[in-house]
Each structure stands twice: as C-alpha cells, then as structure tokens.
Amino acid sequence: MIGYNNLSKKLAEIKSLYSDVIFNLDDIESFVDKEKLNSRKYIKYLPILNECQDYIEDIISKEHIKGFLNRILSSNDEEVKNLRIFIKSKENIFVQLKACTKCKCFKCDNNCKIEACDRCEIGGKIDFCDNDKVIVYTFLNKTLQFKNNKTDEINTYNVLGIVQDLEYDQLFKIIEFNKQKYVLYFYPKLSGDSYGEIKNAEDFNFAVKAFDETYVYEVR
User: Which pTM does this prediction carry?
Assistant: First the structure.
C-alpha cells in the first residue's frame, strides 16, 4: 500500500542515499581516474536517484494531494498504479545502492586494477580487497539451486560470497546449505555461469581462509 507516510519515507531514503554518494564523490573524485570512477555503480545510478526524487516530490507536492491519498485504495487509479510500478521497478537499485555505501570500493581512492562493480551482483559488496591478490565479495538474500544427484531433489543454497584470487585469476563461490558451507570453482560466462568441484586442497584452503577472515554473518 502506498500512502503519504510511505512516500515520505521512501523519499527520505532516496535523499539520504543521494547525499551519501555526492559527499563521497567530492572526497575522492580528484584522486581517481574519471573513467574508472564513472564505471562504479553508485555513480551510474545518480541520475536514477534524481529521477526518483523528482517523481515522488511531484506526487507529494501536488495541490490535490489529499484527493490523491483518498484514491490510494483504488487499484484502478492510473496515477496510483503508475507510482507503484515505478517504485517497484527501482527497488533493486535501492538495494544495490545501500550495499554500495558499505562496500570497500565506495570510499576507495585507488586507481585499482580489479573488476570491482563488473564482478558484483545485486545486493553485493566487497568486504575485503588488498588491490593485489585477494578480493572477497559478500551477498545478502542471494540463492542458487543445485540438483542433489543422490536424491534427485533440487536444493536451494544461500550464496554467501565470491573469493577472487587475482594472482591466479581464479574465482570461488562460497555457498551454504543446512548451515554447512561449500566451496566451488566459479566460471562466469555470458551464456550462463558454470561451477566445478574443488579437489585441490590448496585452492580450497585459500578460498575458505580468505572468506572466513572477512565475512560477518548477516541475518537473512
């Protein structure tokens, strides 16, 4: 249900995100290559935040706002329907921007060589990066489904994170099922991601150590 209070709350959330990004940009833009800076997701999303602010402010500030709010219960009202669709269509962006403000890249002023935002996914952030050998991405509310070859059942795993070994150009995905963690080789492709079983103890230990040293469990 979209009411005046919910609109005001969403507007305050958007303004807060916008301010966080702008203030941070002022701090680092003189140190980071412009092309690299503009590739960061939170910079790309600034125009969308502006669009969201303008849209909601326009609704709130209309002289007939009382009449509009009285029409909230009407699912047939075109203006209400459009607003619901608009806010829902941007929700993933809000989720990502909240994650971005907690990411190690957010305030980083290095001209780094890592994939950073290009490797990240919705709701993800970098929890550790030494800009040399190791990067650890973590995720909230992300899942993967795999078939259990023994039972033929489809099990849903929580995706906890991705560990990237920059030295050997290798990715590992950390997943969890029934409170037990598993590590897989991760091969992202445009045609679809693929995974491989880890049989190399050194690779397994590297991924687990990197992840466990940086990961803080978040309530799902």
Answer: 0.81
* Structure-token pair, residue 110: 């290095």
| 3-state secondary structure (DSSP) of residue 118 | helix
Segment 162-212, tens digit of pLDDT:
999 988 889 999 999 998 999 999 998 888 889 999 989 999 999 999 999
Element (H, E) at 97: helix 91-100
| Token digits of residue 164 | 């990237």
* Dist CA 24 CA 28 (whole Å): 7
CA distances for 179 relative to 38, 146, 151, 175, 176, angstroms: 39, 16, 19, 10, 6
Cβ neighbours around 117 below 10 Å, total: 19
φ, ψ at 39 (rounded to 5°): -85, -10
